[in-house]
Amino acid sequence: MFDEPRRWAELVAAQDKAAALFAAARDGGLLRPGVSETQLSQEIHELAAARFGVKTHWHKKVVRAGPNTVATYYDDPPEHVIAEGDVVFLDFGPVFDDWEADYGRCFVLGGDREKLRLVADLDAVFEELTAYFGAHPDITGAELYAEAHRAAERRGWRYGGTIAGHMVGEFPHTDFPGGREESLIAPVNVWPMRDRDADGRVRYWILEIHLVEPGGRWGGFCEALLADGVG
After folding, report:
1. Is the dihedral of CA 225, 131, 63, 20 positive or negative?
2. 157: Cβ contacts below 8 Å, ≥ 6 apart
């Protein structure tokens, strides 16, 4: 049997460190006009190594700004130099003591009211989906993904992601038993998210929210552990 309280505590601790990394990047002035997405990604990578001892990232490091904020994780849009007024989001997957974090946050450089509303709605939709997950014990990944679309549309946005999250765990969670379809919050996952894997582990999840303004000019993204009703 697995020590599930310990597993969950380790994932929360890893996420707390990732949140501290992003706060250090923000408070240290790294998010600024005139820096390219690639350069900002490298600076945060160096900060993670120097201040937090991070040596491994379990997925590619993503910095998206301006028009590139409508792109998904799987896209490789042209390089963008961050400008005043841009939406900027960060998506990093640092590994802390063999535990995966996957944390994404969104920022606005400036005071545009619609962009600030979108950033606020990212957190609101995250909370709505967390509550929906908690209220539906047998929910599948496909069903939660469909609700992500509905939640975005209720607030006047488009849902921009091809998935709404994925499993997370000890590094690398991709070695856990089961097909890739079972590890995604996406239309392909028709299995209950609370089913344990073939080894008896609880499946822990990252919930992703990707909202795009109706004209497709810019968007925003956040992600964190899906905490309600786990286990």
Report:
1. negative
2. 118, 121, 211, 212, 213, 214, 219
d(CA 66, CA 115): 11
Q: pTM of this prediction?
A: 0.94
Closest CA to 114 of 209, 221, 218: 218
Q: Is the pLDDT of residue 231 over 50?
A: no
Model confidence pLDDT, tens digit, residues 19-33 = 999 999 999 999 999
Residues 6+ apart with CB under 8 A from 137: 194, 229
**Domain ranges in the chain?**
4-225
51 Cβ contact list (under 8 Å, min separation 6): 21, 24
Report d(CA 61, CA 68) in Å as an integer.
Answer: 14
DSSP track, 198-227: TTSPPPEEEEEEEEE-TTSS-EEEEEEE--
Q: Supply the pLDDT for residue 175.
A: 74
Q: Is 176 exposed, middle or buried (0-12, 13-18, 19+ CB in 10 A)?
A: middle
Q: Which residues contact 75 (CB under 8 A, 6 or more apart)?
A: none
Inter-residue contact 63 to 76 (CB < 8 Å): no
Structure tokens at 129: 């989906």
User: 31-45 b/e with 16+ CB inside 10 Å = b?
Assistant: beeebebeebbebbb
Q: What CATH number does the domain located at 4-225 have?
A: 3.90.230.10
229-to-124, 125, 135 alpha-carbon distances in Å: 18, 17, 8
